Amino acid sequence: xxxxxxxxRLPLLGDPVTMNLRAPxxxxxxxAPRIGPLFETTTLGARYVIAVGADVVAELNDEKRFAKxxxxxxEGLVPAAxxxxxxxxxxxxxxxxxxxxxxxAFSQQAMRNYxxxxxxxxxxxxxxxxxxxxxxxxxxxxxxxxxxxxxxxSAAGYSFGSFEGTGQHPFVRHMIGVLKGSLVEAFxxxxxxxxxxxxxxxxxxxxxxxxxxxxxxxxVEERRRSQGNTDDLLALMLRPGADGxxxxxEANIRYQLITFLVAGHETTSGALSFAxxxxxxxxxxxxxxxxxxDRVWGDTSSPSFEQVTxxxxxxxxxxxxxxxxxxxxxxxxxARHDTTLSTGHPVQADDWFLxxxxxxxxxxxxxxxxxxxxxxxxxxxxxxxxxxxLYKPFGTGLRSCIGRQFAIHExxxxxxxxxxxxxxxxxxxxxxxxxxxxxxIPRRLRLTPTIASRxxxxxxxxxxxxxxx
Length: 469
Ligand code: HEM
Prior knowledge:
alpha+beta; CATH 1.10.630.10; 11% strand; single chain
């Protein structure tokens, strides 16, 4: 299949644009409008076919013709995440069993159960920021704390102690080691460079992955020792099935827990950080959000589940953030059988494609100013008027994100808590840049919180009696 490619391709080396090692996906998003809707890139021999146009992505999302593909990057994660939901093959019996078992953990009722935990973590964040008023805070680091605590306590009743002391829990360091290692390994494995170079990336994934396994084994052991009667995700996995043994085996439970702890925080923390950056630049958006929060939350110090779901404008802020900065920058699709795309390109069974979500989210159908941050793009009438396949931050089809509602509830609650309480000032001259380690996160984003001119009570008080293992 002959396809267009980025400009200035070099013999052997390939496309210079993809050599932006800090943010290769973002670099492709920037050039895509000049090449799309379907193009190829190659770097040192590693080739990707990339889809950004709304029509071609709609075809790739058709579950009858295409399915999820792990792609080189997710394959690189397998030594650490095994056949956990994210990295399982479509045919995996463990995927079927775990999906069926865990879907109820994301029902509306389950979300209600997580709500108090989310409030509690929000309060720990505001406690921390209150102690630092007037000084700059490291936004991605604090959003990582928030998201890791929220998923740790909700999924496994486990606190990583992220708000105690100043450092991050070792889990975060090992996770970053795994994500970065898999990126390097995936690229080198498919390049013409000597294979021992890829082996170094694979070694990094295994080394950090082994440390993550030790951490989650400890969490599972602790749960077994305490025989906690919680109703969370870990409890669901450990509960005996009809034959008296757990439905998932030991190894799979470990992989699922690693998957949820990583997928459940790394994506949300980046999205929250990007949203706070935009809020610091847009007082008009902050004013509109505050007006809504005041109206819906009144002076309550502890908003209810429903009061969070009613924040439609804050939700639009989050939707628009994920449009401009999909923190999972792409997903892979492979052909179930031979077919031809509407662009005329023939496709053979198992040919695979990378859907570059940031490119799709800047398709001309978004209007003349796709790089502008405008939450009102997500007004209900405008959403209804757009094709469904134009907005895909949570992936597509059967293998789309199981934690979507969890992420949305958590993000709206945290954003509203922060908007209500603080004015956030950016460092003079800060220019947003993205770092990628499979997921995207803003680079060196520092903001200075001060108490908002119109201050209402904090969202919740932490119950000091509540202890986590
Ligand atoms: C803003 C936040 C989030 C974003 C942008 C996001 C994005 C995605 C995307 C794009 C996929 C599909 C990947 C693919 O097709 O290869 C996915 C899958 C998944 N996500 Fe999320 N996610 C987010 C939050 C969460 C949360 C909070 C959880 C857990 C609580 C979670 C758990 C998962 C799992 C387990 C899968 C694999 C589903 C399967 O294949 O069965 N995600 N996510």
